[in-house]
Amino acid sequence: MKKHPLVGFTIEPFQGLTSQLIIATMRAMGIAFVELNRRSLADVEHLSRKLNGMTAAFHLPFYHEDGFDLACTDHAQEINELVAQVNRHRRALRLRHVIVHPPEGPDQSDQAWQFFLAQLKKIELPVALENVFPSQTERYLQQSTLLRGSLGAQWAGLCFDACHFYIAGQDPLQQWHQLHDQVCCVHLSDCLPDADLHLPFGCGGRLPIDAFLSALRKTGFAGPITLEIKPPSFDDFDRYINSYTTTLRRLHYQKYLRSRIRMWFLMPILSYLLK
User: 7-249 adopts what CATH topology?
Assistant: First the structure.
């Protein structure tokens, strides 16, 4: 039987909506996969009940969003608490892997890298390394080789963020054809050439979305795809959902048809509730 990608969204509170409410809405829409982060974990027990059979990934803190990453020794206690929380709840949240950026803070010393590795080894889940900008592919692959050698069986593969390659001035299609056999998961949204805006498809971004989805299909990618989308407002909710159905239509047509039927019933209700 042909395998198809799991397509889902990044989950965190948005304009007054809790993570739990967002997940319940997505489950009603037939979405079976989500990506969590530390802002999703305010009430883990409630969150795990709302997931109700969905699978998840967990994005570890990264410097430009959280103010620290796993290489920051001055945040050791906070890191230890988060790692313990992820390990403790990994089964309840049905976590399949974690995603990490390379160290991006001011301390790029070997000591910081060794601290980074030590924290990852404490996590009782496979680890995927995401590409970041302005880092170039050569540096990313060097880091992935070091991580793979250190983590051994815990290494999951590359997390391919198409926007990050694009903003770094690299062709995401070319990078995909070069790296796809090492990729375990994908991050996708639209963006501008100089700004990672996490846009829904069709909201003014410049990433070659259709061509990239075609490349995923042609290479037979069957891993999880996280739509890292942050709608500018509730007025863009339709485009938020359209990003999901567009991805399904290109990569899992049968589920796309089922989702369209669900949306036909749900969208009037959701649009009313979000006004």
Answer: TIM Barrel (3.20.20)
